[in-house]
Amino acid sequence: LSVSGGPMSGTIVEYSSTNKSSAIVDEASGKLSAISPGDS
Question: What is the pTM of this model?
Fold first, then answer.
């Protein structure tokens, strides 16, 4: 996944993964947070 430029509204980001819990998109800000599953 690559993102360039500043904040945009009305933009659809398509993200696919075999592990559905590996990323969370904040709908209010559009921030994409990646999570690394495993022991910590």
Answer: 0.31
